[in-house]
Structures are given as C-alpha cells and as structure tokens.
Queue: 4 jobs
Job 1
Amino acid sequence: MIRLYQFEPAFGLPNASPFCMKLETYLRMSGLPFEIAPNANVMKAPKGKMPYIEDNGHAIADSTLIIEYLKKTYGDKLDAKLSSEQRAIALAMQRLMEENLYWAAVYSRWFEPDGWRLTQQAFFGKLPPPVKTIVSAVARRGMKRELHGHGMGRHTSDEIYAIGKADIGALADLLGDRPFVMGAEPTSIDAVAYAFLANLIWVPLDTPLKRYALSRPNLEAYCQRMKARYY
C-alpha cells in the first residue's frame, strides 16, 4: 500500500500545505489505496520537503513527480481523455498556482504579522517553547531568502497582492460555471486547484487574497463541490 508522508492537518483543512493537500486529494480522486504515515518528519524526507511517499520499497518526493509516478505505475484514469490542448491549459494553470500564486500566499502567511502567528503555531506549535522560537525563526529566514530569490519578495505588499489576485481571477475565469476546471468531469488539475483555493478561502486568516477569492462566488462553490465529493 502507498504510504503518504505529510504535515498534520491544520486550519480545519486536510493540510496547511497546498502541495500535501494536492497529493492527498489526487490519491482520493484516483481511488488508489493509501495510508497516511503518523508522525512524519520533514527532516527524513528525501528532498527535505513534504510530501513524499513510499511505495514498493521506493521513496518518491515532490508532489508533481509523485503523481507522474503514480500515473505510470497504476494508470491514468483521471486525465486519459484530455486533449493535447486541454493538457497544455491544465499544465499552464498548475504552474500559475504552484510557481506564482503560491509565493503570494507564502508572503501573506509567513511575513504578515497575523499570518505568521497562525503559521508558526501550525507548523512549529508542538515544539518546546525555546526550540519553537529558534527553529521557526530559522525557517522564516530561509523562506524569506526563497521568496526574494523567486522574485516575489522584491515587490511591495500591494504589488504582491495584485499579482496574486490576477492569478486567482484567471482561475475563476477559466472555471466559469463548469463543475470542474476542465469541464464536466474531474481531472488531476482539480487536485491542485482545490488544494490551493481551499488554503486561501478556508484558512482563518483575513488577507487581500482571501477577500478577492471570496468575491468570485464560483471558487468557493467549487471548493464545496470538491470537498463533498472526495472528503
């Protein structure tokens, strides 16, 4: 059986990491049997990040590479009927969320004061107080370097949120009144979209990104649809 290693649930979501939630959602959508490993330790992860899986004696890291592995190993029921054009659109939207919108969300969680209080407790809250302070500070400095290296961290707060809202708007426009991102039936891009949107809309943190996402009613309706179907 596939063994999934990820962070613990937080914020009332299956996972506070959209990448972990993406993979768990994909596993649920695909119907593959899996179990969630208790007490997963990010320090033991093959690439130093969550999520990762163990399957048939092999450890595979990175949510996208894991899904590619699962498709090749167990078949691709979700995306088999997509056209080449649909696959291109799905990939473009995945990159929009994972490589751009993600960093705007990181800014809101890790560097805004209210966001940092919530994030620090969610990811480091179980550590003893002195360790929590040190480890979370180190992690925050590392995230700041990553945000700056990506380029998002070089912008002002207003610019960051404008970029993130444009991404959310593009996703809302693509979804329109369809039940799922690519149409009438769910595909693997829905695992990505649900994970990222739920981590904006349903986290108990007031941000410009959340407010804008809630201003597009089709996005929360979509999240409710995904939740009812797979959770």
Job 2
Amino acid sequence: MFKNCYGRCDVRNELIEDPVFQYRMRLVREGEILRGEFWVEPGGGGRVEHYHPTVEERFEMLDGEITYRADGRKHVAGRGSKFTIPAGACHSFANTGSGTAHFLVQMEPALRMAELFEDAAALGQAGKWTTIGRHGIPTGPRAVIEMADFLDRYHEIFVPTSPPPALQRLAVPPLARLARRRGRVR
C-alpha cells in the first residue's frame, strides 16, 4: 500500500489518532488518490451516517470485522472482504468485532479528505469535541458551534445525513461565522 512514490506523492508517515471515533490512521496522497491504512478499536468507527458528494471509497479488509451501512442496507465485512462506497452514497461503519479492525481504503478524488481526517483527529485530541456524543451528534451549545465550523470547512466533501442537509445549508454558515467571530474554534 505505501510504496515508494518517487516524489509523486504526499506521504504522512506519522500515525494519526482520533480519540473520539477510536481509530488510528496513516495517509498517503498519490495524485488524485488518497490511500489510508486504518486500525479501528472495537466499537469505534465512522458511526455518523454521511456521504461524500464526489468522493468514491474503496475498502479492503486486512483483519477484524466491521459492520457498515450503505444506502440503508447493513453489511458485515471481514478479513479479505472488498467493497466500494460510491460517491453520494449514504454510509457509516463500526468495528463490531472483538479485536482491532485493520483495513485499507482508497479515496478518489482525494480533494481535502486528508485534511478532514487530520482536523477531526486534532479537534478530538484537543478536547474540542468532548461534548460530541458517541454517534457524532453535538450534545451542547459549544459542540453545535464547533461542529458547524467543521461542517462549513468541509461541506464540499463531507455531509452528515442528520440534521437534514437542507437544514444544514441554512444553519451551518451563520453558526460557523459566529464561531469564528467569537474565536471559540481553531
């Protein structure tokens, strides 16, 4: 997965940890493809149902088990499984096994997906999302403001399905501006 790119890729050799969603990852960008290697703890994962308007994700399970939902259907993927989440498909996943789930994912086009993962992990590490519930839903006013700022920055590549996207388009930009004016985020 992490081959020598001969200067044609952006290699992030450090392991990035997201304490809120309970996974570690290593990311490499090769042109328009972002390759990720993920280790997800039991119960962890991308539990917030969402979609990427223009990004396709291709998964290959190396070890462990995840249960994922894609367009309303539940699937279990274990070692050796491969599956694709097309751009625009609503999805989420969780490690439903007893050990660490280990998988590779290719995201294409890469766009700003690496920054999204890095930013989410940094917010979690800084304790900014301590009031974000287990399923990624804000549990207090401060968390709503912080989430609005995050969603506004990445709206072109990450859209949660709740609250409804139409409501997000109305509410997120003014809340994000409020967050930035008050200096409450970043």
Job 3
Amino acid sequence: MRAAALLKRAEQAQGKPALLIFDEMFSGTTPYEGVSCAYSVAQYIAQQPSVLSCIATHFMYLTQLARKYSSVENKCVRLEPVDASSVDIRRYMRTYVVHSGISDQHVALDMLEDEGVANSIISSAHEVLKNIEEHGLDPKKGSLQ
C-alpha cells in the first residue's frame, strides 16, 4: 500500500521533480513475491525522468537494474572491521559512510555472536545458511533436520 501511495504521488507530480524513499519495500511478504514486486516498482521508477529515488533493500536481484538503466546506481553502507586487540568485543564498527557498489559483506552471524546469542542458535543459523546456499529458498528442496 505504501509503494502504491508513493507511486501515485509521483504520477500526480505530472513531470515535476519527485523524490521517493523506500526502506525494505515488500519485505513483509514471501521472498519471491517481495523481489518480484520490488524489482518491478524500481524498474518503473528508473524509467521516470523526473523521479529521484532511494531504495534500501536486501533484495540483491534489484542491483541488476544498474546494468539496464544508466539512471540507476548501486550504493551500500559497509561495516569496518575492528582491530582484534581492541577492548570492544564487537568485530565491526558502523561508519555510516555511503560507498558505490553492492555490499559484499556477510556479517550477520558474527554480529549475533558478538551480541551473546546462544551458540545453539548460531550453529543452527550456519546450518540453515548452508542449506539455502546449496538448495535455494524453496523449503521443498532443503534438507534440514
């Protein structure tokens, strides 16, 4: 509903500049449907000459739009590793610096561990991740016990 409302506002601008900001659009639905809807909305926005948008997403599929449209740029915020000898128990520091490109960091499991989450949960998350990497997100193809 929020995406539809923002798109409607952009259309009502009738060619005047419009700024649309999306944070994790369609994250409240299934991953496949979420990616499909988010991609289609972002693609539509990319084709609108008077619309500037900022779309925060974990749907990596959307990053492909930068190859298709010169108006699309991929940006990311990275975490900086903290020196192991640091007194701080955390392995990463938030810098809040925007970089060009796509994030290649995979730090969520480390961060869970840094926050003291039970080892059984961390181990389970590693198992699930391995299963998803091998079989995709379709639960019928997975092999978790």
Job 4
Amino acid sequence: MDEIASPPSDDSDPAPAPGSPKGPVRAYSPAVLSDRQPRVTDLLPVRPLWVAVAMLLGLTGIAAIEAIHIHAAALPLAPGGEQLAALDASSRGSLAAWYSSLLLAMATAAALVVFAIRVHRVDDYRGSYRIWIWTTAALAWLSLDAATGVHDALGLAVNAAAGQHGLGSSLAAGSTAMWLALYGLVLGTLGIRLAIEVWPSLPSFAALLVAALLYLCTALLQLDMLAAATPLGQSVLQSTLTLLAHLALTTSIGLYARHVYLDATGRLRVHIDPDKKRAAKGKGRAKLKVVKEDRVEDSPPAQKTAAAAPSRSAEPARFGAPASGAPKSGATISKSPSHYDNDDDDEEDASDYGGERLSRAERRRLKKLARRAA
C-alpha cells in the first residue's frame, strides 16, 4: 500500500536540518492539481469556428469510409473476399459500424453534459430535464446496436412473439419490418419530445429534423421501397445515409449542449429589437396616462379641481382681503348636500356680510356668528 506523506504537525519535533526540504517533496508541477485540470464542459466546441471544424471532420470521416468501401469493392479478389470484410460498409464489424458507434457514443456524452447542466435550472418547475436521462439511455443503446447489429435479433424475437414464422427471405423481411416498427414507435416518440426540448436552439432543431429525414430514408431503403440501379450503389447509398443520420443526430445534441452551456454561463447572445422595445415603452406610458386620468375622474369634485389646476403657491385668504382661490396646503374643505340648498341665500346675504370681497366660507361663518349673537 502506498504511504501518504504529510508534513509534521507536532511542534515538539526537531527542526529540519538546514538545506533539507520542509514537508513532502512534490514530484509533479502544480498543473496536475484538480482545480487546474480541464473540465468536461471545456471539451465542448463553443466558438463557431470549432463547431464548423468538428462538423467538417465528421463529414471527412464519412467520405473516407465510403471511398475505401468503393475502392475495396472494385478490387479483383477471390469469391468471398473475407479479408476485406472490415472495409465493406454494409457488413458488421466494419469501419462504418465502428464510426457509427463512435458518433453515437459522442452524442451520449453530450446528452450527459446537457443533463448535468439542465438539472440546475431554477425555473424548470415541471422537471423537463428528465428527458435527457431517457435520451442518454436511447443513445447508448443505439451505439451498442450500431456496433453489433442487435436490432436483427430484436426483430426476430418480436416476430416470433407475434406468432409469425417463415423461412429465408420472408423471415428476414418480417424481422426487419418488426424492428423498424418498434424503433419508429419508441424512438419516434422520444424524438418528438426531444424536438420540443431543443426548440430554443434553432440550429439544433434543424439538425434534428435533418437526422429524422435521413433515418426515414434509411428505413425506406431497408424495406426495399427505395433502390439504386446497382448493388454497389445500393450499399453505398444505404451506408452513407445511415452515417449522415448519425452525424446529424450527434450534431444536434452537441449544438444544444453548447446552447445550454452558454445560457448557464450568461454568454448567450439575446437579440433585442429596438423598435419593438420603443413601441412597448410607448404603450406602457399611454397605459399609465390612462390610469392617471381614470384616477382623476374617480376623485371627488374638490380633489379633481386641485388635480386639474396647476400647482402654484398662493397666499391664504385674510379677513377683508381678496381670496386667492386656493385653500391652505393640508386643509380640505368638505361640503354637505345641505350647503348646496343655501347657495341662493348666500348670494342674497353677500351684500350684508362683507360683499364680494369675502369668500363664501367666510360669509357663512359671519352669518353663523350673527345668528348666535341674536
């Protein structure tokens, strides 16, 4: 068992000799520490240039595999040609099968990254991030299937469970139809839910649609609904469409992983239309103005007059001086309905109690004092 070196913790230990190292000796540079190691998200192609490079590398690999397949098929070999089976893109265990499994394994890793980031989103109240658990499991199964061809055995098992038995080509055709129907039902439903999930990233959504279209064309080739002129053309077309579908699916998951990472780190660019923002601001101001007008209309008559009149400083009315027309600040004048019935009396007594120089409230006050004195 390896020993774990630790510096001495007892102060009573004798001091080390001059020139000797203090504590354990580090055999590696500080770059080996965990906080300086690259993280999983650092492997995501964030810059558009690296995204384009990754896609071109994927297309280059497909082109190289198909070129090797065509060249190997044109070689004059003995019947059988088992030595070049690894170069035949339509056979199991070939370069095409390995490349397909590699692409789907990369998509599985990208789906795990998306799940690890999406699980921390605070506004995901319904738990939509759980779809990435099922997506990861489905991609892992597809990677296994691409390397081993286990779908044929699965189709045969479903065909036998359905009670359909046949011989030769009829059994193979029935098994192919069964596994295509099963994959279309399960993975098609998952793909629709995944399309809803990746909709905020338009490049990812477009890549997912392209992958679905390519998988549909591959299924039609498997069912012999589409056929090429020659057997070599048929095998090349089928393998090329399958590899392109895997690449499009991997690209879709990778682009959405990039989108989620940029969104989580606050580096996602958000386009704001200035005209739309200005129109929304003007609409908000108009709504505020309408609300203010409604408040003025609902206010009592005295408050409505105060709100409509411009604010200006006015002198309080004095006895014997002309009224300024504005009450004191902080003072409110309330009128009961009975006061409106005595307006005519107030006008008649205006000459007896100060004339027009006094306000109506002051004339009423003088009239009240005169009645008490009488």
